Queue: 4 jobs
Job 1
Amino acid sequence: MHIQQVHYFCALSEERNFTRAARRCGVSQPSISNAIHRLEAEFGGRLFERKRGGVGLTRLGHLLRPFFEDINRSCAAAQCEAARFFASAAGAPARSALARRGWTIARRANAAW
């Protein structure tokens, strides 16, 4: 399992649409689809039901969602802490791409939680 797959899972479970999830993550729709397929293969079952009007979580997806959300929040928090560490060491505010990405993910994760 890769952290990016977890991030894509969380985006897809919130957006319920592959295209919107891809746009939110800044990747192509096939990237999201392939990552989800690999995640499903690793866990041995479908995480999403593909329906005409979008996607929804399967029972397995509902079971695993809290774990994936925790992983996603923890990664965002780690990115923020690393950015703060380097900013304080340099004596400057944290304005790196790492900090912006971490704060964006953390805000979304906390809003969804």
Job 2
Amino acid sequence: MLQPEKPGPHEANMGSPGSRLVTRENQLFVKATDRPQSDEHTDKIFSVQVSDEATKQLIAPRGPFGELRMSPNGNAVSFVGSREDGPEPHDLQFLAVNGHATRNLTGASLDRP
């Protein structure tokens, strides 16, 4: 269990490559997979309530992604992800925690197909 020194978001690496945990008070955001042996991009973003361990899958982005971050108020997460299936993550994605779809904040402004 992470012991925050002060209120606010905190982050930790979870040991395996690409695993990510972001915390805020009673809520965790986790990048994880249920198929670690797969060579496909199977990571998903989950929210976990610490009080009752309720887990909710927020999204399963297509392709690789990383740099999971949480907004200061805990109502949104952002990450750097791929537009499609890869090959590399390069677009800043935004997801409201109560939303169902990401919003690509940089895709339209970049000169790429």
Job 3
Amino acid sequence: MKFRIMLLLLVVANAPLPAGAQALADSVDSPSPVVVASPPAPVLSYVRPTEKTNLYNYAFDAFGPFPLVGAGIAAGINLEFIYSGPHSLMSRMHLNNSHGAPGPTGPVSTP
């Protein structure tokens, strides 16, 4: 029952309302004429960046905060997930899997 009421409220809330026409201002009631100002035309011309702006953009893209954070994240992933010795995550995963670590070399003697 609650589901049906919620569904009905959802449908009623999202139903489109009929659009009505707006009433025009009567010229008798308003003593001043209505002036509609048009928005200014946008400037569509392309301005090439200066050499100073190009150098700043190059330096920001090469040495800014985003490349430094990206290099730090890549270094952290590289240290943990690429085998680089006995302390990396890959070697720990190898020691914990079902195959186990390689056993001692040579025959195993049982007493």
Job 4
Amino acid sequence: MSQPNPSQSRTSSIASILMRTQGFFGTQLWVWPLVAALLLVAMGAWPRQKMESVAKQQVADMLQMVLNANIEALRSWSATMKTDAENIAAGSGTDSGT
């Protein structure tokens, strides 16, 4: 009494599925254009998704760079305005005494 080999039973089941599939595709010719269309859609959707994600990342990086530049410009402007206000305040105190 020998135990059935699981790899043989798996191979035989795969073989039977392939035989049934081959028979189905051989008699139903309308399936081939459908399979080809599905493959083309899958082959086109994957690169499109990859390119879209790369483009989104590039836009996000550019927007972050612009934001950082604007923050630095506002800090510089704020420091300049503070210095100008201090100079005007210091100057107006001396001008009132004349």
